[in-house]
């Protein structure tokens, strides 16, 4: 006699299995019940501690189907024994444990200013070291033609440049058009300064303020936000510290930096 299962639940009504993901430090997840989103900083027996972008900590139980990872339901599990490593870099790329930095390529990526370079390093630093891409910064976009001429980009030495406020018709746009070639790519974002490329919510403000013409933009921002600083460098440290990963940056910047990295590392 054939034996039948006592479970008469249709297959489409049965709970679907979800992947189990080790709660490695640095993994960014969301607890859907509270909406709390943060990076794993500690995983103990039965619990996981998350830290959000503002430094706030919350402890949650390790329950089945208890978290969202990039919008998908997952079950967090305690990592296996051994040194824990982040599963993703700050740029969102899959981390490569133990990977050595590649010998620097002949190609380069230039950005417009020290703050731009620090932000790129914080988010894309791990990727750039693996690819052997060196990032340098311009003192000003006016220096770009002489830098490109001196660099002499070619098939094995491509040059990528990120420019602030690259809007058609502006001085920056005309300079970029003049130096762009098969082996030199100039891209930009629409923001007056790299500060604006950080999402306001990540910094803890509603929006970046409008600064009247004729007023130094960074100084005007600090005054409008009521930030009491002796110089704008202090404000930048505050902004940079609020950036944990690519999720804290505007898409208009993310796409341009990824484009430059792909351009410089493309096979000759």
Automatic annotation (TrEMBL):
It comes from the Bacteria. Residues 1-20 are annotated as: Disordered. It holds the Pfam family DUF3097_N. Residues 20-79, 108-265 form the DUF3097 domain. InterPro entries: DUF3097_C, DUF3097_N. This is DUF3097 domain-containing protein. It comes from Streptomyces griseoincarnatus.
């Amino acid at each position: 006699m054939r034996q039948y299962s006592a479970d008469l639940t249709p297959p489409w009504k049965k709970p679907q299995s979800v992947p189990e993901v080790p709660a490695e430090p640095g993994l960014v997840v969301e607890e859907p019940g509270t909406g709390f989103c943060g990076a794993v900083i500690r995983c103990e027996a039965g619990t996981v501690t998350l830290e959000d972008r503002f430094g706030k900590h919350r402890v949650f139980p390790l329950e089945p189907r208890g978290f969202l990872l990039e919008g998908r339901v997952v079950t967090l599990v305690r990592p296996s024994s051994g040194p824990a490593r982040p599963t993703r870099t700050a740029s969102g790329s899959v981390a490569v444990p133990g990977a050595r930095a590649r010998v620097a390529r002949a190609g380069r990526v230039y950005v417009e200013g020290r703050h731009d370079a620090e932000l790129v390093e914080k988010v894309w630093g791990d990727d750039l070291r693996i690819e052997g891409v060196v990032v340098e910064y311009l003192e000003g976009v006016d220096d770009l033609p002489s830098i490109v001429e001196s660099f002499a980009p070619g098939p094995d030495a491509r040059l990528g440049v990120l420019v602030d406020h690259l809007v058609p018709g502006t001085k920056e746009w005309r300079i970029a058009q003049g130096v762009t070639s098969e082996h030199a790519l100039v891209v930009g974002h629409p923001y007056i300064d790299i500060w604006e490329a950080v999402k306001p919510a990540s910094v803890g403000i509603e929006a970046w303020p409008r600064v009247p013409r004729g007023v130094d933009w960074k100084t005007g921002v600090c005054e409008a936000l009521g930030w009491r600083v002796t110089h704008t460098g202090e404000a930048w440290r505050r902004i940079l510290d609020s950036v944990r990963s690519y999720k804290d940056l505007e898409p208009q910047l993310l796409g341009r930096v990824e484009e430059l990295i792909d351009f410089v590392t493309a096979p000759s």
